[in-house]
Amino acid sequence: MRVLAIDASLRNTGVAIIDTNKGKPRSLYFGTIHNASSMRSSACLVAIRDRIIELIREHEPDCCALESVIYVQSYKTAIVLGAARGAAILAAAENGLPIFEYPPNRIKQATVGRGAAGKNQVAFMVRALLGLTVTPDPDAADALAIGLTHLRTAETARLGVPAVTQI
To answer: Pick the catalytic residue: 60, 139, 142, 155?
Structure first.
């Protein structure tokens, strides 16, 4: 199974492509879609959608996994995050990918072992779990963690324990 994993944000969207090789997860690509603060929000959404479509065409993932909507105290932040998620979901859906989402604490629990882990801990564990030679930036590390969570959840579901939310 090959997963496109996305940690959506308007200015820094983390993206990753991971799959399994004989049951062992491996990273095929990870990075961050950086949008300059001078870009209009609408241009950022187009850039997110376009880059995700490029990754889909290049790597041909089987599905897409994202972090579910998080609670934020600012409605403005929530709207911006929702728009970025929408651009990412649209790109995946337009290309026929099933889309799955996971709560942030579940992603951290699956990656680090505790749901309140910090970004540095997630990046460290992702590097170790995937045998990377460099530590990914926080947004790319979060995307890799989302992908790892999906692979583990899919394996658990294959064994008869359903535990995934598909949107």
So the answer is: 139
